């Protein structure tokens, strides 16, 4: 590849910029850079000119003006007198909520379906194949709209719960109401609540953290820490003596007792949903739009994850299964102890891109009226203020940041579980 | 890769699609087609039929303008727009005018730099509820779930109304009327709120319209009208006076049935001026002298358009109400053709 | 009593295997009821299938094909005694043509049909290279000019003059190459072609059209709709994104820092944002980015954004193909003394693209499915049309029939393509062994 003798020293000529490979790469880079700069400059000057013609001036001042519209699902407090920025934050939180929920269920479903697709049971395997093919080959937007329509049309309306002889009743010992406006589940309440901490004062990013939640988490963390200690001790004893002391009741106790103590101290009780006026009141209201979006995104993405899981399992050599069987493991344990942990390494990289896809697909929420970032910032705010440039660019940047965040976290995890090759 | 020529060919084709210059009227004449922004589909106002032929009350305005300018009511390209894309489509010159249930508001007129040329439908935001709820006033709706169509002024009006009356509600934002109707019928929301005309139109298509009532409160003024870009006054005049010709046509008794006869000359000078047998009104607008005649022939006068698309003889069955002529207690009042 | 023998002298005939291990029963024991867990699963899924299929058939079996409005459907259903239950198929009979072709002029339906049949023929040399005559490759080369001509119509000279640019470029290249070397030849060929397209093509086309007006009726792209719109956006965007994707993939692999970071930045940006935001850019911002006065129609803008979107994904697919090539191929090309572009053109790309075909097909399927998103910005693709149809007072209130029909159309397209890509993957795999 390299020549044996150095090329004769020549004085620099202009043509060498093109013909000499040593300089050519520099030339290409400079040309590319200049081309890129010209393109950007051209776009900016066009934009400036057009905006001037339209009489608009790019400015983000609208973000601090009152939004004027209401949002139904608010994870943090909001009313229509808050700013557009606050509305965007609410939307962002809703996006993150459905993305996280979707990723979790899609993974669980995907793994189950991927494993079942390889089942020896013919009917199950075929059924799963049909599931995967149906969901993969129909657009996700259609599934979202479909899921919403199914929820609306098949579940009872709150009015069906009314009257002496209602058409519908509440489920699970009268504590859960399943309606076509969403599902109402009991909510945890504390009669001796510790109150909230208010963060970020009065800015658009302000939010409250419940001290009850913190107390609960501290108790849980403490319990888990002690449990970990107990486990390491048990391991040590097992290694030294060969006999593992029975610790499960101890483990259970150290986790459960502190949490229980906190609950009792705070006066924990459940708030049940009740039909009052037009709607159920009380309890946690999981709206239809959230459920439909969550369901459709998880089912759709699960079909893809199932394929990845199947490919991952098939990539593990048959010798592994046979060796595990020779050790006397049962098929279920072979799967969970030998095959899946190895397959995981093959599965994770495509899984990352499925998570990214799910998060990006969550922007289709507007099809069912779920108020995510696209619905607030790039939806109603855009409509009401007429600031297309600012809202769309800001929205894109936020999505980009979310995607990069997921990539970074998942790649870090991937590097951790990756087989260290010698 | 030869395929890259695709982009080239497409770019050329796209550029040829036309540029928005100062004179929209000249553009439209040169193009031979009017680009008219409409909704993606709203019962009675704009919807394509099985052959792709658009029909409706707003569509009628587009066709009248096309007939006035080009002499052919079919010389219209309908550009379906959503609540989000409509203003950009107009501002960027993609459409020449917007006839799309758009409320005339201060900020749209002044801040967004559009010009509303008139009002073709006086509307207001109302509420529809199932009869069995036993609600007789919107003020009794505390805690109700309300379906709203997004991308309009409705959600702001709604927030204002509930705030002013200090009652709570749960908004369910919905993209299209069809979906809102589905949710409302299934009981996923107690109340459906949108413009009263939309409510009536929607209710008319229910299986049992009698089970639903429209509440008496009208919580906003919604003057809906066609709009054009700021700064092109000639074109604004053309659209404004075409709309006025339709309205005045009804007032003066010019219908698509008798217009041929009337255009031969009558003893009413205003009719003569409008239909071009007297004076030079068409020329002043930069149009043919029988521009108003063409506009009315296209789909009839205002009253005929109303009756044919949304009036009481149609399934939608809207009463004229505020949209009657001023002589009959309505708000329609076309300035004189003089 | 002498010849009593306790030893069998002849073989017994072979017995049939027990009924429980052969035939239907054996198969069922083996595959459906091999353990209690499997049996339970089988029974549950059997019941599930039964209930789903049962209720679906009960709904779909509804003689409403000839109904002309939803109310008529309801009357028919009431007449048959199952009120409020049962599909209303009249809407499909009334609107299926519209769902396929949108507002394309009915007398010209042959044009999109022909264009898509020709597409299949033009792709054949690439996809089934072993089964079709090689001459077809000329059709493949000509197809990019045929398709816009057929779909958008207009004069034939437009398509020909676009093609002429390439011919001119080719001849200029040949002419200059001898005199001034290949690099100068490439530059002058590109310059000549660009000059032709920008300045000469339009008057020449105009002149030729005036002399010989051959052509078909032009169709505005906003008349495109339904399935045809989805396919057009998908096919055009994928075709355009292929060359861009190749360039981006090469850029991402190159050692040139600036070029590499520009390519990585572009790819990661596009892949990091949802398609819907890019469509918002197409619908609200693209006109602002262009020089004042330019005005693309919305479908062109969507195609442009879809192309950018697809090229980022395409770049990653092709990068995968490049990475899958054994290093020996690169080294082999180097050792033959080929320069970068020669080795890319003759050795690397043909192989890398071949490996990438399944990935390209699945990118296409993904993009094709994603074209439904254009309904959000008001284009009348099948999903957008379903809203427009429901705004017709005849069909106001229809839900499942339309969604079901649209889902079925997408399923048929995507499923057959994904089967093809699987077939291809198998074929490619055997090639390597």
TrEMBL record, chain A:
It is found in: Cell inner membrane; Cell membrane. Residues 92-410 form the ABC transmembrane type-1 domain. The chain crosses the membrane at residues 23-44, 87-116, 137-157, 209-226, 247-271, 291-313, 362-380, 392-413. It is a multi-pass membrane protein. PROSITE patterns: ABC_TM1. Keywords: Amino-acid transport, Cell membrane, Membrane, Transmembrane, Transmembrane helix, Transport. Signal peptide: none annotated. Pfam families: BPD_transp_1. The keyword Membrane applies. Its main location: membrane. It comes from the Bacteria. InterPro entries: AA_ABC_transptr_permease_3TM, ArtM/GltK/GlnP/TcyL/YhdX-like, MetI-like, MetI-like_sf. The keyword Cell membrane applies. Belongs to the binding-protein-dependent transport system permease family. HisMQ subfamily. PANTHER family: AMINO-ACID ABC TRANSPORTER PERMEASE PROTEIN YHDX-RELATED, MEMBRANE COMPONENT OF AMINO ACID ABC TRANSPORTER. This is ABC transporter permease subunit.
TrEMBL record, chain B:
Residues 1-21 form the signal peptide. SMART domains: PBPb (SM00062). SUPFAM superfamilies: Periplasmic binding protein-like II. Gene3D superfamilies: Periplasmic binding protein-like II. Keywords: Signal, Transport. Residues 33-262 form the Solute-binding protein family 3/N-terminal domain. Transmembrane segments: none annotated. It comes from the Bacteria. It holds the Pfam family SBP_bac_3. Belongs to the bacterial solute-binding protein 3 family. PANTHER family: AMINO ACID ABC TRANSPORTER PERMEASE, AMINO-ACID ABC TRANSPORTER-BINDING PROTEIN YHDW-RELATED. This is Amino acid ABC transporter substrate-binding protein. It comes from Thalassovita aquimarina.
From TrEMBL, chain C:
It is found in: Cell inner membrane; Cell membrane. Residues 227-421 form the ABC transmembrane type-1 domain. It is a multi-pass membrane protein. InterPro entries: AA_ABC_transptr_permease_3TM, ArtM/GltK/GlnP/TcyL/YhdX-like, MetI-like, MetI-like_sf. Keywords: Cell membrane, Membrane, Transmembrane, Transmembrane helix, Transport. The chain crosses the membrane at residues 36-61, 109-129, 136-153, 159-176, 224-250, 262-286, 298-318, 355-380, 400-420. Its main location: membrane. Belongs to the binding-protein-dependent transport system permease family. HisMQ subfamily. PANTHER family: INNER MEMBRANE AMINO-ACID ABC TRANSPORTER PERMEASE PROTEIN YHDY (PTHR30614:SF41), MEMBRANE COMPONENT OF AMINO ACID ABC TRANSPORTER (PTHR30614). This is Amino acid ABC transporter permease.
């Amino acid at each position: 590849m390299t020549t044996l003798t150095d090329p004769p020293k020549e004085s620099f000529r202009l043509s060498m910029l093109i013909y000499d490979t040593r300089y050519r790469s520099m030339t290409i880079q400079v040309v590319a850079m200049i081309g890129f700069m010209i393109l950007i400059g051209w776009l900016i000057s066009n934009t400036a000119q057009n905006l001037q013609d339209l009489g608009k001036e790019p400015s983000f001042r609208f973000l601090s003006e009152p939004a004027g519209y209401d949002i139904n699902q608010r994870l943090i407090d909001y009313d229509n007198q808050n700013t557009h920025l606050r509305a965007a934050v609410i939307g962002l939180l809703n996006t993150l909520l459905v993305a996280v929920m979707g990723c979790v269920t899609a993974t669980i479903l995907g793994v189950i379906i991927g494993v079942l697709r390889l089942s020896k049971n013919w009917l199950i395997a075929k059924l799963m194949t049909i599931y995967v093919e149906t969901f993969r080959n129909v657009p996700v937007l259609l599934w979202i709209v479909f899921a919403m329509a199914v929820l609306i049309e098949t579940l009872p309306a709150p009015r069906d719960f009314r009257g002496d002889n209602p058409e519908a009743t509440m489920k699970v010992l009268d504590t859960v109401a399943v309606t076509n406006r969403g599902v109402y589940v009991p909510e945890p309440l504390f009669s001796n609540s510790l109150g909230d901490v208010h963060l970020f004062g009065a800015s658009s990013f302000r939010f409250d953290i419940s001290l009850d939640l913190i107390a609960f988490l501290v108790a849980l963390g403490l319990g888990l820490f002690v449990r970990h200690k107990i486990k390491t001790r048990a391991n040590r004893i097992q290694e030294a003596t060969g006999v593992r002391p029975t610790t499960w009741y101890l483990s259970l106790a150290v986790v459960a007792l502190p949490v229980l103590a906190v609950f009792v101290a705070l006066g924990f009780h459940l708030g049940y949903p009740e039909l009052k006026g037009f709607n159920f009141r009380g309890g946690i209201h999981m709206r239809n739009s959230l459920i439909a979006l969550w369901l459709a995104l998880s089912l759709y993405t699960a079909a893809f994850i199932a394929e990845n899981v199947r490919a991952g399992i098939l990539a593990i050599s048959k010798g592994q299964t046979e060796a595990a069987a020779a050790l006397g493991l049962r098929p279920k344990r072979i799967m969970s102890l030998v095959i899946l942990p190895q397959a995981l390494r093959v599965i994770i990289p495509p899984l990352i891109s499925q998570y990214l896809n799910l998060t990006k697909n969550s922007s289709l929420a507007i099809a069912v009226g779920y108020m995510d970032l696209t619905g607030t910032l790039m939806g109603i705010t855009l409509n009401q203020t007429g600031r297309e440039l600012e809202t769309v660019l800001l929205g894109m940047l936020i999505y980009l940041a979310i995607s990069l965040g997921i990539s970074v976290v998942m790649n870090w995890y991937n590097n951790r579980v990756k087989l260290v090759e010698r | 890769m030869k395929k890259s020529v695709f982009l080239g060919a497409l770019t050329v084709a796209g550029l040829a699609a036309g540029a928005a210059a100062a004179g929209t009227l000249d553009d439209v004449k040169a193009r031979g087609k009017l680009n008219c922004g409409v909704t993606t589909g709203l019962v009675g106002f704009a919807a394509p039929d099985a052959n792709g032929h658009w029909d409706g009350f707003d569509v009628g305005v587009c066709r009248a303008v096309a007939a006035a300018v080009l002499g052919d009511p079919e010389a219209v390209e309908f550009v379906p727009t959503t609540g989000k894309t409509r203003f950009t489509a107009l501002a960027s010159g993609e459409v020449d005018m917007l006839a799309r249930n758009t409320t005339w508001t201060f900020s749209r007129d002044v801040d967004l730099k559009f010009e509303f040329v008139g009002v073709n439908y006086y509307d207001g935001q109302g509420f529809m509820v199932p009869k069995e709820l036993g609600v007789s006033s919107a003020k009794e709706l505390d805690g109700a779930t309300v379906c709203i169509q997004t991308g309009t002024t409705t959600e702001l009006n709604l927030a204002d109304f509930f705030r002013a009356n200090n009652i709570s509600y749960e908004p369910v934002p919905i993209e299209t009327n069809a979906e809102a109707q589905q949710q409302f019928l299934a009981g996923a929301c107690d109340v459906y709120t949108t413009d009263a005309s939309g409510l009536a139109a929607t209710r008319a298509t229910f299986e049992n319209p009698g089970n639903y009532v429209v509440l008496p409160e009208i919580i906003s003024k919604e003057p809906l009208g066609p709009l054009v870009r700021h700064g092109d006054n000639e074109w604004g005049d053309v659209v404004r006076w075409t709309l006025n010709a339709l309205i005045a046509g009804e007032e003066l008794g010019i219908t698509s049935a008798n217009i041929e006869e009337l255009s031969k000359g009558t003893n009413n000078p205003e009719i003569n001026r409008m239909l071009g047998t007297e004076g030079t009104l068409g020329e002043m607008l930069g149009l043919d002298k029988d521009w108003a005649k063409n506009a009315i022939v296209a789909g009839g006068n205002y009253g005929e358009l109303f009756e044919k698309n949304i009036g009481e003889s149609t399934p939608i069955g809207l009463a004229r109400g505020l949209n009657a002529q001023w002589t009959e207690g309505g708000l329609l009042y076309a300035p004189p053709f003089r | 009593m002498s010849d009593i023998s306790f030893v069998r002298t002849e073989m017994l005939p072979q017995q049939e295997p027990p009924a429980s291990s052969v035939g239907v029963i054996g198969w069922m024991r083996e595959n459906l009821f091999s353990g209690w867990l499997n049996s339970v699963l089988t029974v549950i899924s059997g019941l599930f299938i039964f209930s789903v299929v049962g209720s679906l058939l009960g709904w779909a079996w509804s003689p409403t094909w000839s109904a002309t409005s939803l109310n008529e459907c309801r009357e028919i259903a009431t007449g048959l005694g199952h009120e409020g239950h049962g599909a209303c198929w009249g809407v499909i009979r009334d609107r299926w043509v519209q769902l396929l072709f949108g507002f394309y002029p009915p007398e010209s339906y042959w044009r999109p049909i022909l264009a898509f049949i020709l597409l299949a023929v033009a792709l054949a040399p690439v996809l089934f290279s072993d089964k079709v005559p090689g001459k077809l490759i000329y059709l493949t080369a000509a197809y990019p000019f045929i398709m816009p001509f057929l779909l958008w119509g207009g004069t034939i000279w437009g398509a020909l003059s676009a093609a002429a640019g390439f011919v001119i470029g080719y001849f200029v290249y040949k002419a200059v190459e001898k005199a001034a070397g290949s690099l100068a030849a490439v530059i002058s060929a590109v310059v000549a072609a660009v000059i032709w397209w920008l300045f000469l093509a339009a008057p020449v086309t105009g002149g030729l059209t005036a002399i010989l007006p051959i052509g078909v009726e032009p169709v505005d792209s906003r008349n495109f709709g339904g399935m045809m719109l989805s396919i057009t956006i998908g096919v055009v965007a994928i075709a355009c994104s292929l060359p861009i994707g190749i360039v981006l993939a090469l850029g991402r692999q190159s050692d040139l820092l600036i070029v590499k970071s520009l390519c990585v930045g572009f790819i990661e940006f596009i892949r990091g944002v949802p398609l819907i935001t890019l469509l918002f850019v197409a619908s609200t911002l693209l006109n602002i980015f262009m020089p004042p006065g330019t005005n693309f129609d919305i479908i062109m803008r969507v195609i442009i954004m879809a192309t950018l979107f697809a090229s980022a994904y395409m770049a990653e697919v092709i990068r995968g193909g490049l990475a899958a090539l054994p290093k020996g191929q690169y080294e082999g090309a180097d050792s033959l003394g080929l320069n970068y572009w020669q080795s890319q053109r003759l050795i690397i790309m043909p192989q890398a693209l071949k490996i990438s075909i399944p990935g390209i097909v699945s990118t296409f399927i993904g993009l094709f499915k994603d074209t439904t998103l254009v309904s959000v910005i008001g284009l009348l693709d099948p999903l957008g049309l379903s809203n427009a149809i429901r705004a017709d007072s005849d069909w106001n209130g229809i839900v499942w029939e339309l969604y079901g029909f649209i889902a079925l159309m997408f399923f048929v397209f995507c499923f057959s393509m994904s089967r093809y890509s699987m077939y291809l993957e198998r074929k490619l795999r055997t090639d390597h062994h």
